[in-house]
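Narrative of activities, Objective 1.

The group set out to show that a structural description can be obtained from nothing but a protein's sequence at a throughput compatible with the screening campaign. Below is one input-output pair from the validation batch, recorded exactly as produced.
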Amino acid sequence: MSTSTEQLTEQLAATTLLRFATAGSVDDGKSTLVGRLLHDSKSVLVDQLEAVEHASRSRGQEAPDLALLTDGLRAEREQGITIDVAYRYFATPRRRFILADTPGHVQYTRNMVTGASTAELAVVLVDARNGVVEQTRRHAAVAALLRVPHVVLAVNKMDLVEYREPVFAAIAEEFTTYASELGVPEITAIPISALAGDNVVEPSANMDWYGGPTVLEHLETVPVSHDLTACHARFPVQYVIRPQTAEHPDYRGYAGQIAAGAFRVGEEITVLPSGKTSTITGIDALGEAVDIAWAPQSVTIRLADDIDISRGDLLAPSGDAPPTTQDIEATVCHVADHPLAVGQRVLLKHTTRTVKAIVKEIPSRLTLDDLSQHPNPGQLVANDIGRVVVRTAEPLALDAYADSRRTGSFLLIDPADGTTLAAGMAGESFATAKAVAIVEDEEGWDF
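Output recorded for this entry:
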């Protein structure tokens, strides 16, 4: 490869963005790893580092506690734990990053779901002294449920086990076997010491037996699939533009953000859930007419026919339109403090559409430590993950979550106060899972 080609490749890589999340059990060193990444990649401002050094000295620590770079809440610093999801932005010459540092406690599993829901990579930390524990398996299962395409196993605190290769190899084999059974497509194991900096940004001189990439090197080079144009084309209508002015007396456009795929002028589309069809006569992007637009652009689409279209409708190519349904089977993570129960009336928000719904059935609750299904729990409480059957008052055009993370996901909302109850993923749960047998029961429901 010539020098100019290498420079061009690096320039193209620098334009890419990787969203990733960190997860792991309590005290595995997630915040220290994030702090080390920020510090050693020179992504920390001078005043931030001075504040951390001052806080560390006031706690009697000689060296700066890099975990304080992310544990910003007062309660987090006092207890030495991560409570909320901390988002951090940093960049290297090769790539830009948005990082979600998520809590390790079981009671904050819902926070990990929030952080990993948009991630393309998850870094799961393991304490080399403890190996794979229940919370490690829990986070691997959540990453698999959310279809995170890349998982990094960071075996931390290798300095406390004398950098022994057999310790790392045993943990890597156990975790890889478990995550592979869940259907995680790619797993990379890296031995590190976040506190000492081994294999985080710079290669470790203490583990010459390891020949793989450092954490940062892997983050910079892992393939990132932003090609949403290869997905099924979907356009949720957010707003109808009808100026009715002297300059634009007959203008009617449908504005929104393309969720996936690409749309072209002249293409025949179907409006869902009505099923009516028309042809795209124009696409306006940033005030200019274009022939083609793709995800995640925000555009206005004009059609040949005056069809009754409003916020919440979905435009899709007529040859690739999703089916509509009022019966939704999905996996949900319950995030509210009060339970989700069978028979409960909820609002279901899918893209720009919000409809009334009833929880008809909760066939099972997932036990993440051994992936067993607890049948018919009756309700889900905070941090529970389970299968639900929901009946909606109006048809919805839902894709399977495995096909589209954007149009296969939804929220269940409390109609009384607007509280988010659960985050849902339509269709099968794990990539290798078998469908849960569900018995339909129409008796006594309004719709």
